[in-house]
Design goal:
The complex is a heterotrimer of chains A (about 325), B (about 260) and C (about 300).
Chain A (H helix, E strand, L loop, with lengths): L1 E14 L5 E14 L3 E5 L6 H8 L7 E6 L13 E4 L11 H11 L4 H14 L15 H12 L6 E5 L7 H16 L3 E6 L2 H7 L2 E6 L2 E7 H5 L3 E9 L3 H7 L3 E7 L2 E7 L4 H10 L3 E9 L2 H9 L21
Parallel strand pairs in A: 3-7, 3-8, 5-6, 6-7
Antiparallel strand pairs in A: 1-2, 1-4, 8-9, 10-12, 10-13, 11-12
Chain B lengths: L1 H16 L2 H20 L7 H28 L1 H6 L1 H6 L5 H35 L4 H30 L2 H28 L2 H13 L9 H5 L6 H28 L3
Chain C lengths: L1 H9 L2 H28 L6 H4 L4 H7 L4 H21 L8 H11 L4 H12 L9 H14 L4 H14 L3 H12 L7 H12 L3 H13 L4 H34 L6 H6 L15 E3 L5 E3 L22
Antiparallel strand pairs in C: 1-2
Helix pairs in contact in C: 4-6, 5-6, 6-7, 6-8, 7-8, 7-9, 8-9, 9-10, 10-11, 11-12, 12-13
The chains are: A alpha/beta (about 325), B mainly alpha (about 260), C mainly alpha (about 300).
């Protein structure tokens, strides 16, 4: 069974004060998320990521098309028994303490008294909030709230977890912890649906990504394949090269950047690396570093999103098709 | 289902009962009631009457402010602060949420009213040195005040499903005021001579919440008991009207997107 | 030095200026407010506000808190009255409107009717000197609180003291005596005042009713005494008339009652209901004898006890 499935999902909002014009937030989005994978939904702000998430959680309703969570309609309350959700920039109740709030969440799920207190204690400790458990939430810093949000998303030991910008508000230590947490969850066989605009996070964690822009799916595929698409360029750094070697290498280099006594040359994929290296050795220039540069997720992203509405025509990289992966 | 409603009600109660604003309002109310003991000395022959009138009216007015204030926190605030996304993503039906919220807030009001009533009876005891049958009759008036609150919270709930906190408060207050005048509006329609106007005002009379049914403060202050038929029919009216309001809120809320 | 710079921060010119404006502003408010007060005529009632179409409108507007408003208006009425009294005023223009609004807000505020009527009826400078307005107020009270006998008492006293309308006073007392809970002296007042007003028949009737009612022995004795006095009154009136006739026909005053007997006006010197003969006083008026058991104070025209002579 698929954890998440959307079929030609379309969502229009009516905007405008007097005559409401429809604004299309999602257009015929079709996605599939397998059980056990970490799926990243990427896109610039306003792309429709949050809308998708809301529809999958039953907070908003599709104008056309369908969405399924564990093969159930998201409006079916039983579908929620098995999921966890961390909203973006969460805010909770001012006057409840962390403990009370977690207890509240746990009792909504119908956990027995014993299970409840055990889970609450465990999760608060997991996110490092045990010491603050009796403080009212209005006294919590942004990072603490974020951690509480993660804790409450896991209170029912869900099989599918929705995370909307999970790293926001966290310091590097916190981000590292969340990353580890996600990997741990993955190891346990959980499915994670992850929405973010921070590509480096997605790059580290996701199995598959989908890219959304202006409500349309611009690309979808396994991260592994995207990142192994091939070398895009090579960068070499020379120290105090003489003019001759620079001149010799100029035809190969797409860009030359001088910083202090170092020069960074970016060589195109087509350049014959062996010849370049031979030239460097011949000129006795000092080679500081040599780095193959693969296409990054950012490149893939910018390629897909850029500044246009439609996907760039015919620019499918090898193995990639806009649409369903695999 | 019951268990979920109960837990929502309980936690809503906890959350709203700790609002600073409520404490301030209660303190004000108690101060006012206490001061009634002093006011009597500048008038003539109305020590008990003034205390009772001032006490009951304070409870009514401050309670109304509380009802409106926490009422808008019911749904509007949750939508504004987006805490509602979190709770609705859990296995809770939308109607369970509405009912639980309502009950939690009603409980908050009952507790606050009990505190104010406690202060009131303390002042009464201080002035009269004993509490008699007449004073127990005042509980009827307090009960009717609570019935009004139940309806007001229902109104606040309904409006907060539709609009922003400020507008909800405004509409709730307006309906409360109009609801007190319904008798006169209907009479106006009767006297106007226009059949259409008369029908319209009659319709309004039955449609809008009739708060004038519950105005018993003056009566109770003079030691007249609220007749039992009024107690039962008033209770039923409040119950039915609240049911109507909650049903309407649920209908709106079920279709609401976030 | 850290210390120095901090102090410098706290004593910047802006800070000084703000404090100055704060203190100065507050101080300056005081004389300005007093000037306003002087012009506005001091702390008084604003008559236009009072003429609030009616207390009924105010009552509707009060959203169920009319009782409290009534208490407030009653307090204002009391304060207004007190202020006017202290100032030895002779006119209390706003008293009636204030009382009217008070009782419209709370028709069961009995004290407003009662004391209000007293304030209105009493002659200046003790009161407003408006007995008719007082009557109207009490009548409104009766309409709103039927069966409250004390209002009839209040009516009776206004008619009696301020309007000297004995007939109406007696009638008020009599009606009041029939209300539930009325004290027995209401009827007694009716009876006494009837007699004072010259309506002896009513008086006798009422006293007889009182006598026949199952009351305490004291009350019945009192009734008897009154009836006796009434009898004596009547006798005295008739005898006085005879004295006047004697004077006319004989040109001089009779020396005693015996003279009247000798002149043939009477068969014998009549006895009062206590069995004691009447006497002719030096003032030429008939009165009861010194041995009489009739209570002199109950006589309508009590005269000074006569010098002892027959």
């Amino acid at each position: 069974m698929l954890a998440i499935e959307t079929i030609e999902l379309t969502k229009d909002y009516r905007v405008g004060f007097w005559r409401k014009r429809p604004q299309r937030a999602l257009e015929r989005l079709s996605l599939e998320v397998e059980v056990g994978e970490v799926f990243g939904l990427l896109g610039p702000n306003g792309a429709g990521k949050t809308t998708t998430l809301k529809i999958l959680l039953g907070l908003a309703f599709p104008t056309a098309g369908a969405a399924r969570v564990f093969e159930r309609d998201p409006r079916d309350v039983s579908a929620h028994q098995n999921i966890g959700y961390l909203p973006e920039n969460p805010s909770f109740y001012d006057h409840l303490t962390a403990q009370e709030f977690m207890t509240y969440a746990a009792s909504i799920f119908g956990l027995s008294d014993r299970a409840r207190s055990r889970q609450v204690g465990l999760l608060l400790e997991r996110v490092g909030l045990t010491d603050s458990r009796n403080h009212p939430l209005r006294k919590f810093s942004k990072g603490m709230i974020q951690r509480l949000g993660i804790a409450q998303a896991l209170i029912n030991d869900p099989d599918l977890i929705f995370l909307d910008e999970p790293m926001s508000g966290l310091d590097p230590v916190g981000r590292r912890e969340v990353r580890n947490l996600i990997l741990q969850l993955k190891e346990k066989g959980k499915t994670i649906f992850f929405s973010t605009h921070i590509l480096s996070d997605a790059e580290t964690l996701c199995d598959r990504v989908a890219i959304l822009d202006h409500g349309k799916l611009q690309g979808c595929g396994e991260l592994r394949e995207i990142l192994e698409v091939g070398l895009s360029s090579t960068e070499i750094v020379l120290e105090k090269p003489n003019r001759d070697v620079i001149v010799a290498l100029e035809p190969f280099a797409s860009s030359i950047v001088r910083t202090g006594n170092r020069v960074l040359l970016t060589l195109g994929v087509e350049s014959d690396l062996t010849e370049v290296l031979a030239e460097v050795v011949r000129s006795k220039a000092k080679l500081i570093s040599l780095n193959p540069v693969r296409m990054s997720l950012e490149d893939y992203f910018m390629e897909r999103v850029g500044d246009n509405d439609a996907p760039p025509p015919g620019k499918a990289a090898a193995g990639m098709e806009p649409g369903k992966g695999e | 289902m019951i268990q979920r409603i109960r837990t929502i009600a309980f936690h809503t109660f906890k959350e709203s009962v700790r609002e600073k604003v409520l404490y301030n309002l209660i303190v004000f109310a108690l101060l006012l009631i206490g001061s009634a003991v002093l006011f009597a000395s500048i008038s003539l022959g109305i020590e008990r009457l003034l205390l009772v009138n001032l006490g009951l009216s304070s409870i009514a007015i401050f309670g109304l402010l509380m009802a409106i204030f926490i009422g808008i926190g019911l749904v509007s605030k949750e939508i504004d602060r987006r805490t509602i996304h979190n709770i609705l993503s859990k296995p809770v039906r939308r109607f369970e949420f509405i009912i639980g919220k309502y009950l939690g807030l009603l409980l908050t009001l009952v507790v606050n009213t009990a505190i104010m009533a406690g202060g009131f009876y303390t002042a009464l005891y201080y002035v009269e040195r004993h509490l008699g049958h007449e004073d127990l009759l005042l509980l009827d008036a307090i009960y009717f005040i609570l019935l009004q609150f139940a309806i007001v919270v229902g109104l606040a709930l309904l409006f907060s499903c539709i609009s922003t906190p400020i507008l909800s408060a405004f509409f709730t207050f307006c309906l409360y005021v109009v609801g007190n005048f319904l008798g006169d509006i209907r009479w106006l329609g009767h006297e106007s001579g226009s059949a259409i106007f008369e029908k319209v005002t009659a319709l309004l009379y039955y449609l809008l919440p009739n708060f004038s049914d519950f105005q018993v403060i003056s009566q109770a202050a003079h030691g007249k008991a609220v007749p039992s038929y009024l107690l039962t029919s008033g209770s039923f009216y409040a119950l039915l009207y609240v049911t109507v309001l909650i049903s309407a809120s649920i209908l709106i809320f079920e279709e609401r997107e976030f | 030095m850290k210390q120095g710079s901090e102090t410098r921060f706290r004593t910047r010119p802006q800070i000084w200026l703000c404090w100055l404006l704060l203190a100065g502003g507050f101080l300056a408010l005081w004389p300005i407010q007093r000037a306003i007060d002087r012009r506005a005529g001091g702390v008084g009632e604003n008559a236009e506000i009072l003429d609030f179409h009616s207390g009924k409108t105010l009552r509707t507007l009060s959203l169920g808190h009319a009782g409290l408003l009534a208490d407030i208006y009653w307090t204002r009425a009391v304060q207004y009255f007190g202020r006017k009294r202290i100032a030895h005023a002779r006119r209390f223009e706003l008293l009636a409107p204030l009382l009217r609004i008070t009782t419209q807000l709370d028709p069961h505020l009995l004290i407003a009717y009662r004391f209000g009527a007293i304030f209105l009826a009493a002659k200046p400078p003790e009161g407003a000197g408006e007995p008719e307005q007082a009557l109207q107020l009490v009548r409104q009270g009766i309409v709103a609180n039927p069966g409250y006998w004390r209002f009839w008492q209040d009516l009776g006293f206004i008619y009696y003291w301020d309007l000297k309308n004995y007939k109406m006073a007696a009638r008020a007392f009599e009606t009041g005596s029939k209300q539930p809970g009325a004290m027995v002296w209401m009827k007694a007042m009716a009876a006494t005042i009837s007699a004072q007003g010259g309506d002896f028949q009513t008086s006798r009737l009422l006293w007889s009713e009182i006598y026949l009612q199952p009351e305490t022995e004291t009350v019945r004795r009192s009734a008897l005494a009154h009836l006796a006095a009434l009898r004596a009154d009547q006798d005295i009136r008739e005898l006085n008339a005879l004295v006047i006739r004697f004077r006319k026909e004989h040109g001089s005053d009779p020396r005693s009652l015996n003279s009247l007997v000798q002149a043939g006006y009477l068969k014998a010197v009549p006895l009062d209901p206590s069995g004691v003969p009447y006497v002719l006083g030096i003032d030429g008026k008939i009165t009861v004898g010194p041995q009489s058991k009739i209570d002199r104070y109950l006589l309508t025209e009590p005269s000074s006890p006569p010098e002892a002579h027959a």
